[in-house]
């Protein structure tokens, strides 16, 4: 197809959402996609990832090579055919030591650093389709004649496209443009005052300080003054360990959280205390958590937001990256049926219709997980049986979701609009049968 007849899609942000979507769109001959990323190179941010089953399904829908990129970059938590889980254990109180949940159950489940996963996705995209060091500062939709979206970058350069899909993170320019900078849901929030104290330690060194079993699994150890977790990274050469504290008192002078004090965890299990002491030695990888209050829409005109730009969540449900990948899977599927620019707005409306309710429910769920982890949710920590029921139901909601069915619902919503010709309907009906 001639370049001037291809639909030009700009993606702002080369994170998990943006690169996963780009990896799908580059395979479509009628799509001309380009990704613009602020930073000059990737770096590790956060705790690392142990993707749940819905994330693995979403990657497979975008393409087997996307799923394989994850497998190639990640550390297997067990044998490929072994079912692995994240175990949630009470580390403080009358029921100390009791397991209350098994989250993220999946065969061949792996852990991976964010930077490694991004490198894997990036390798699937032609180099001339990604530009680093481009900080988006302004968006302008041009309506006279041809509807185009103009992007202005911090370095003064500009780019135009038929649509903009913003995956530009929690401090999203796309989100501010769509909602308005003064909209109450535009900026990120930290309603419960979460501080994540985190360290990165060579695995060999970590084994000298904590129970070695925590260097090859992903536990979450609960208690009222912070919950503790570990995640192996970089083919099990490094361990990310952290303590997430709710209600941190941040300095009025510089906004910083106080140092992590291991003495506050004297009534936690000894294994939990060992991890806290290890983290306290070096908290240089720490960060302040943030999420988004609900946006009233994810798309308007030919501009949409997805991933963390649309629905950043606290990390406690372990499904933020999975939701970004579900977004990418839906958008990739829809754009396979967008045959001319006039159909873009309908596709983005369908994306919003299926993804906003579910992804915002996960934002709410992550907030509730945090409260449960901190023993701050209606006395739930005093009733392990009740906790098990809660976690099982919520894990089913995130992990066992019909991701392919979500794509098909989005397509049916897209078809529900007027103006779809008979040939187009025949094409879609054939796709749904296959």
Describe this structure in words.
This protein has 434 residues and is of the alpha/beta class. It is built from 13 helices and 18 strands. The strands form four sheets. Strands 5-4-13-14-15-12-16 form a seven-stranded mixed beta sheet. Helix 2 crosses helix 3. The radius of gyration is 22 Å and the shape is globular. The two termini are 25 Å apart.
- Count every beta strand, where a strand is a DSSP E run of 2 or more residues: 18
User: Per DSSP, what share of the residues sits in E-state strands of 2 or more residues?
Assistant: 15-25%
Radius of gyration: 22 Å
Strand count, sense and barrel status of the largest sheet are: 7 strands, mixed
Strand order of the largest sheet: 5-4-13-14-15-12-16
Described by its quaternary structure, the protein is: single chain
Overall SS class: alpha/beta
Q: Average pLDDT across residues?
A: 90
Distance between the termini: 25 Å
Shape: globular
Helicity range: 25-40%
Give start-end ranges of low-pLDDT stretches: 418-434
How many H/I helical runs? 13
In short:
The protein is of the alpha/beta class and 434 residues long. Helix content is 36%, strand content 21%.
List keywords for this structure.
434 residues, alpha/beta, six-stranded mixed beta sheet, 13 helices, globular, disordered C terminus
List the helices and strands and how they pair.
Blueprint: E1 7-12, H1 16-25, E2 31-36, H2 53-62, H3 64-73, E3 75-76, E4 83-90, E5 99-107, E6 110-111, H4 114-122, E7 130-131, E8 136-142, E9 148-153, E10 158-161, E11 163-166, H5 173-179, E12 195-202, H6 203-209, E13 220-222, E14 227-233, E15 238-245, H7 270-281, E16 287-288, E17 299-300, E18 303-305, H8 308-311, H9 320-335, H10 344-373, H11 384-399, H12 403-415, H13 422-433
Parallel strand pairs: 1-2, 1-11, 2-7, 4-13, 11-18
Antiparallel strand pairs: 3-6, 4-5, 8-9, 9-10, 12-15, 12-16, 13-14, 14-15, 17-18
């Amino acid at each position: 197809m001639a370049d001037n007849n291809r639909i030009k899609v700009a993606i702002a942000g080369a994170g998990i959402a943006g690169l996963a979507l780009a990896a799908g769109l580059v395979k479509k001959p009628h799509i001309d996609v380009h990704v613009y990323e602020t930073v000059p190179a990737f770096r590790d941010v956060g705790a690392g990832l142990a993707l749940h089953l819905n994330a693995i399904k979403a990657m497979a829908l975008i393409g087997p090579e996307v799923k394989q990129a994850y497998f190639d970059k990640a550390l297997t938590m067990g044998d490929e055919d072994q079912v692995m889980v994240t175990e949630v254990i009470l580390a403080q109180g009358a029921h100390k030591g009791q397991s209350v949940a098994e989250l993220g159950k999946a065969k061949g489940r792996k852990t991976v650093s964010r930077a490694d996963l991004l490198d894997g996705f990036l390798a699937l995209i032609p180099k001339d389709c990604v530009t680093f060091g481009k900080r988006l500062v302004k968006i302008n939709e041009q309506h006279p004649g041809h509807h185009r979206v103009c992007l202005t970058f911090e370095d003064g350069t500009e780019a135009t496209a038929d649509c903009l899909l913003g995956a530009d993170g929690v401090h999203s320019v796309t989100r501010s443009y769509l909602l308005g900078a003064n909209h109450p849901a535009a900026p990120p929030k930290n309603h419960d005052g979460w501080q994540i104290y985190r360290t990165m330690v060579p695995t060999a060194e970590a084994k000298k300080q904590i129970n070695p079993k925590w260097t090859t699994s992903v536990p979450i150890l609960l208690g009222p003054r912070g919950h503790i977790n570990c995640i192996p990274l970089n083919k099990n050469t490094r361990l990310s360990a952290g303590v997430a504290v709710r209600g941190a008192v941040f300095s009025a002078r510089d906004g910083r959280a106080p140092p992590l004090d291991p003495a506050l965890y004297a009534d936690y299990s000894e294994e939990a205390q060992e991890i806290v002491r290890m983290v306290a030695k070096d908290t240089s990888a720490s960060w302040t958590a943030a999420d988004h209050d609900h946006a009233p829409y994810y798309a308007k005109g030919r501009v949409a937001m997805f991933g963390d730009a649309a629905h950043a969540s606290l990390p406690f449900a372990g499904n933020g990256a999975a939701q970004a990948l579900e977004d990418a899977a839906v958008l990739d599927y829809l754009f396979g049926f967008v045959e001319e620019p006039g159909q873009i707005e309908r596709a983005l409306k369908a994306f919003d219709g299926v993804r906003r309710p579910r992804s915002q429910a996960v934002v709410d769920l992550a907030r509730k997980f945090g409260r449960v982890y901190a023993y701050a949710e209606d006395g739930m920590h005093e009733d392990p049986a009740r906790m098990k029921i809660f976690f099982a139901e919520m894990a089913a909601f995130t992990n066992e979701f019909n991701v392919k069915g979500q794509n098909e619902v989005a397509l049916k919503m897209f078809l529900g609009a007027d103006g779809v010709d008979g040939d187009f309907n025949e094409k879609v009906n054939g796709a749904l049968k296959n």
